[in-house]
Amino acid sequence: xxxxxxxxxxxxxxxxxxxxxxxxxxxxxxxxxxxxxxxxxxxxxxxxxxxxxxxxxxxxxxxxxxxxxxxxxxxxxxxxxxxxxxxxxxxxxxxxxxxxxxxxxxxxxxxxxxxxxxxxxxxxxxxxxxxxxxxxxxxxxxxxxxxxxxxxxxxxxxxxxxxxxxxxxxxxxxxxxxxxxxxxxxxxxxxxxxxxxxxxxxxxxxxx
Amino acid sequence: xxxxxxxxxxxxxxxxxxxxxxxxxxxxxxxxxxxxxxxxxxxxxxxxxxxxxxxxxxxxxxxxxxxxxxxxxxxxxxxxxxxxxxxxxxxxxxxxxxxxxxxxxxxxxxxxxxxxxxxxxxxxxxxxxxxxxxxxxxxxxxxxxxxxxxxxxxxxxxxxxxxxxxxxx
Lengths: 208, 169
Description:
The complex is a heterodimer of chains A (208) and B (169). Chain A is built from 5 helices and 7 strands. Chain A has 208 residues and is an alpha/beta fold. Chain A has a domain at 7-123: Beta Polymerase, domain 2 (2-Layer Sandwich), CATH 3.30.460.80. In chain A, the strands form 2 sheets. A 5-stranded mixed beta sheet of chain A has the order 1-2-5-4-3. Chain A has a two-stranded parallel ribbon with strand order 6-7. In chain A, a hairpin with a 4-residue loop joins strand 4 and strand 5. Chain B has helices at 23-33, 45-53, 85-97, 108-113, 143-158, 162-168, and strands spanning 37-41, 76-80, 103-107, 134-136. Chain B has a 4-stranded parallel beta sheet. In chain B, 38% of the residues are buried. Chain B has a single domain (37-161), classed as Rossmann fold (3-Layer(aba) Sandwich), CATH 3.40.50.12280. Chain B has 6 helices and 4 strands; from the N terminus they run H-E-H-E-H-E-H-E-H-H. Chains A and B meet through helix 4 of A and helix 3 of B.
């Protein structure tokens, strides 16, 4: 039943600014940010894409423009077909796009996650708070400038931090991934651990 | 209360019913054999913790079957699972709410060291926020390992100078 309608062509007809997007699996289109709310509504109401499978984002790197791309994956439960819509965020410093929670209620938590991880704000979102990290966390961990090991930050609770002296520490992979040593009789030795411990939180990063 | 018994001196008639012991031994005997755990189940280790409490492994054999979900009523916090930084404050607060004396078992790789989660979001070992008495290796540990940790903790409690601690408190 799928692929009976060429969705990118239909979109192109309705929204002339749409451009085809290279894709290995499903039909995909790039759309300018101004067209996206109308295009998604068109896909939902007139093309039967009634289910928002995923809403995520891409950070192309610091200094690249456009830096952020928001991606929507839609599924039609009627036609059993997927389509992917990608949209470059107009601003690289303060990316803000329109929320689609009014089209799919399920977009709520996806948009909160994208906001938490990438710092992209969704205008019109009913409750745009962080969903994974705590309120007040100063970074957006999936941005390219955020190091894999993390950044030293205060604990969410100042009282607990004063009581315990603990902080959010950078946790370098220390040459990971962490692997178990199969065949060890001594279970302590067999525990998963990094083979390279040259950099960890007790030993500073060696100069390259 | 009215009683006819006015004897306060040693009565040779009841000699067979008196046990002489040390305060430490008595207190520690009571504490070791009725240790009520606070199940801090945060991830998959909690499944093994449940298995340990169930019939096949039966943690009741060691007097620790009364899992209390109120920190006020528990003696031993079993941190079973990954402690995120977001959760760390809650773990510490629950520990603070437990009445003395209290002990902590760090169950599994995540609770002991952060485990495989070398991440911006995961506390790298629960001993950074609460004092840990026994660490258990494994991902997750077998129920036998948890029982072994409990026995290790009991052996540790038996060595405590409880009477002296009472006087100091």
